[in-house]
Amino acid sequence: MKIKSKSRKNDSSFAGLSSPLPGSYAATSKAISGPVQYKSRNWDDLAFVFFFVAVLGTFIFETSIVVPKIYSKDFHSSAGPVIHYITGFFILHNILGNFVQIIRHQSTIKGKLLLFSNQPSSSFSSKTSSANNQRYCFTCETYLPPRSYHCSSCGVCILKRDHHCTFARACIGYDNYRYFLALIFYISIGSLYVSILNMFFIWDLLGGFTFYNFMSHTFPFIFWLFGLLHWYSTMCCLISIINIAAFLFTTGLVFYHGSMVIANQTVHERAKSITDFDLGNWRSNVEQTFGSRWILTFISPIIYSKLPGNGKDFPSKRDYNLNSPKTK
Ligand SMILES: [Zn+2]
Ligand SMILES: [Zn+2]
């Protein structure tokens, strides 16, 4: 009862309990047995809608306007349009597919039996908690496995929580991290591809590559407000600028998250310099996030790749080396 009264003050905090726990602990909770209550915010809804409008809008723009214009002289005789359409559908399938999979595979602790051993191993970071000082979520009313954290937006604790994705309105964690990384990878590739196509189209539309046209392409709304740019050219420049921005943003994210996957770290662990889950070589670390068929996960979001573990217990480097096939 005392715990409950505290919980309403801060719904995203944890506290270590001083009383030692038994060797293993099964957690069930009233708070996580009901439906997950997503606390929708205007910004989240806006980002969610923006994602679909930007992706589908760009796809329609490229396939119905840009490609036909670039191949206006030999649209039916050239293989170029077909190659562009096949590539476009492949990238779109990966962007939308991984986005849907992120939402479908949310790593909440809801409905999961949190049975885990209470060992003083490296599963618990000495910098965040100790085995006898296990973390407790007052909102979910349960003890937490290592690497799990509460999300105030999702209203529930997430296994191996990385961060909350505003665009997907979902947390990225144990089950859906592979889809998130594939998503930003394909947005990066797709926006680069589109930006290159747009360069052939935009400069032709604006009348050549000059400093004036470069400025009107970069700041289309300002030029439109002063009556210096037609609304159609303004929309084309806007789509081009959004894709260039998407390329820069997601490419940075791919390198940032890629470096963490190689080190088997989450955003939180990177910020706190926690390296307890680094298994010693990049391939083992990658398989912890993508599963054994990690290469195939980048071909399609519908390809299954079984993840090791259960999202609640994580091997230390020593445990992993002892149990690996090479040492058996
Ligand atoms: Zn929680
Ligand atoms: Zn969340």
From TrEMBL:
Its EC number is 2.3.1.225. It holds the Pfam family DHHC. InterPro entries: Palmitoyltrfase_DHHC, PFA4/ZDH16/20/ERF2-like. The chain crosses the membrane at residues 46-71, 83-103, 179-203, 236-256. Its main location: membrane. It comes from the Eukaryota. It is found in: Membrane. The keyword Acyltransferase applies. Belongs to the DHHC palmitoyltransferase family. This is Palmitoyltransferase.
